[in-house]
Predict the structure.
Amino acid sequence: MNIDIGEIGSHVSDANGFHLPQFFGHLPDLPKWTVCGHEFQLTKFMVLEVVVAVLLIAFFFPLARRVRGGQLVKGRFWNLLEAFLMYLRNEVIIPSVGKSAASRYTPFLWTLFFFILGCNLMGMLPWCGSPTGNLSVTAVLALITYLVVIGGGMLKQGLFKYWFHQVPKMDLPLVLSIFLKPMIFVIEVAGNGIKHVVLAIRLLANMFAGHVVLAVFLAFISASAGGLLALWIGVTTGSVLMSVALSCLELFVAFLQAYIFMFLAAIFIGMAQHQH
Amino acid sequence: MMPYQISWTNAGRTFRLAAASVVCALGTSLPILAEEAAHEAEEGGLKPLAFQTDLALWTGIIFLGLLFILGKFAFRPIADALDAREKSMADKLAETDKANADAKALHESYQQKLAGADDEVRKILADAKDAAAKKRDELLAAAQADADEVRAKGKRDIESDREQMLNDLASRSASWATDLAGKILKEKIDPKDHARLIDDAVKQFSKG
């Protein structure tokens, strides 16, 4: 038996082009540029991110026009989009960030949610992939979130006060506080950073693992070929059924992980608005 | 049984057998295949933790650009619109509450007025009844007085006419009597005596 996960799992990983099934032919690789002496290769995930961005603009620009002045939108799709926005704003952002700061962070958190959701859902399309199944993508999103969190905290509490407030108020003797407070400061700042690293790893792991499991199940079909026919039929049937079931789960996970990332980002922003 | 009729019992048995064989095949082959797949995945070049600087930069630029564009031209206007809608709904709700309270107050006032009007109507009816009764009594009294007066006048007239008639009768009777007496006596009675005799006779008659 031979399972070529590298080949089947190209759906999961980034690539220099889009790989169609063999009978559709072969697409040329994506272009490569040299920018300031650096060779820049356009990849599949980059293109998919642009597609997601364009789709989001195509969805939300008309919605903005339709709701202008507080008008009620008409149509299922626009109501669906508005229901998403309303739910995230009223049930997640405002309770986490606070009503006064919510208007400042709502566009960021909405963009974060829909960008991640779009990237996650790209993995459900044939021959595409989930950019969020790559550490480079999730790490940047987590880094931007981290910058927004500490930037928001400094904006609210003051440039230096934010960092001073990382250490909770404790009635300690002077000698102890000289030793303990710097250590607590380091732990708090590192903890804050680690929380954002976990944010990136969680999204990556969920999206990557789901697609790898799907790829493995489909790989069973080719792996069992060439042996007993009855075994191949059984494995193929089971693999297809499991793939369908897992795809449904993946669809749910795509929404869930986008929601969790945005939800935790909102909580971190809310926490940074107040001192310990 | 018809020759080509489907036997559902047999179909169900066949399906169960097929399902059991699939489960058995998966049960025996999946652990082996999974182990092999995991091994191949490691060697197959799937490196989820590999960091691509270009992709990271690209992602940052795309996300920040998207945040700017959507934030400025879509999400900010949408958030403002939702705020405006919520404010409008809250205002309308407050207006509705106020209108409801006003309507209730008005309703209560009308109820009170209606209750007052009932009392007034009852009072007017009672007054009207009293006035009608009074008027009726007055009219009856006046009619009674008129009737009494007419009756008294009638009585008086009748009495007067009777006396007049009696006087006339007495006068004529006396006249006839003196005339008759004079014829009988063959002497003529002078007019003075004649008048005196009639008056005496009338007086006598009236007394009688």
